Amino acid sequence: MAFLVAICFLLLKKMKCGCRQRKHLKSLILGPLTSFSYSELSLATAKFTERIGGGGFETVYKGVLKDGTMVAVKWLENTGQGIDEFLAEVDTIGNIHHVNLVKLIGFCIDKRHRVLVYEYMIRGSLDK
């Protein structure tokens, strides 16, 4: 799995093609994850008002998507990652499935924002 992600990452780095081809390749790599716009997540979180956690480089907010799905929206602070590195990380996280890990639903990426969208744990953690 890691080998495949590394190959895809290298392909993205080396590709010198048009924007449309690059977006198509990224969509093939990221598979079923949803790409959210910043405005969609701002609406879902009521402009990022309900903070439910965080750490040194991220803040987590509670949100509700248009379809009623409750989510945890992790806003990453100035990670220094480029777009390709972030997408490779999103792809890796999105393909990991384990009973003790929260499922990644999607992401948001633009010039200033790097956001991960996870399923919301109603009781606050996996052990409850």
From TrEMBL:
Provide the Gene Ontology terms for cellular component: membrane
User: Know the name of this protein?
Assistant: Protein kinase domain-containing protein
Q: Which organism is it from?
A: Gossypium stocksii
PANTHER family under this entry?
Answer: OS07G0415500 PROTEIN (PTHR47974), RECEPTOR-LIKE SERINE_THREONINE-PROTEIN KINASE (PTHR47974:SF9)
Membrane topology, record value: Single-pass membrane protein
Signal sequence region: 1-19
Entry annotated with the keyword Manganese:
no
Cite the InterPro entries for this sequence: Kinase-like_dom_sf (IPR011009), Prot_kinase_dom (IPR000719), Ser-Thr/Tyr_kinase_cat_dom (IPR001245)
Alphabetically ordered keywords of this record: ATP-binding, Membrane, Nucleotide-binding, Signal, Transferase, Transmembrane, Transmembrane helix
The organism's place on the tree of life at top rank: Eukaryota
